[in-house]
Amino acid sequence: MARVPAFAKAFAGRWRIVEMDNWDNDALDLVEEAHLTFQGTAAGEIAFVALKGFLDVRYGARSVSACAEFSWEGQDGNDRVCGRGWAALGSAGRLVGHIYIHNGDDFGFVCERD
């Protein structure tokens, strides 16, 4: 089992996606409540609009801030999709980050602890 940095615990749990580039809140929650969840030492999930993906997470630092970088794969409606992303601890207890869809769009996002 890989050793996980102590600050990884700060990411653990479910985070509600409250803002995302190019999407309003009604669209974000189209299929289920938009969220980013970090589970265990390297797993998690992301869901927004009609996309649901499962994460492979690595914890580290980005510009001296704690950071979770991840690859993901899942479904967007009936289409298989995959990509990568990152989330960093921001101000006011929020997460800020970016998600990339392989050969597709990318979006900035903001999360609050659920």
Mean pLDDT: 91
Radius of gyration: 13 Å
**Which residues sit in consecutive blocks of at least 5 with pLDDT less than 50?**
none
Helix content: under 10%
Word description of this protein:
By secondary structure, the chain is mainly beta. It has a single domain (6-113), classed as Lipocalin. The protein has one helix spanning 25-28; strands spanning 13-20, 35-39, 43-48, 51-62, 65-76, 79-89, 94-101, 106-113. An 8-stranded antiparallel β-barrel has the order 1-2-3-4-5-6-7-8. β3 and β4 (51-62) form a beta hairpin. The longest helix is centred in the N-terminal third of the chain and has 4 residues, at 25-28.
Describe what is shown at a glance.
This protein is mainly beta and 114 residues long. The protein is built from 1 helix and 8 strands, in the order βαβββββββ.
Secondary-structure map with pairings?
Elements: E1 13-20, H1 25-28, E2 35-39, E3 43-48, E4 51-62, E5 65-76, E6 79-89, E7 94-101, E8 106-113
Antiparallel strand pairs: 1-2, 1-8, 2-3, 3-4, 4-5, 5-6, 6-7, 7-8
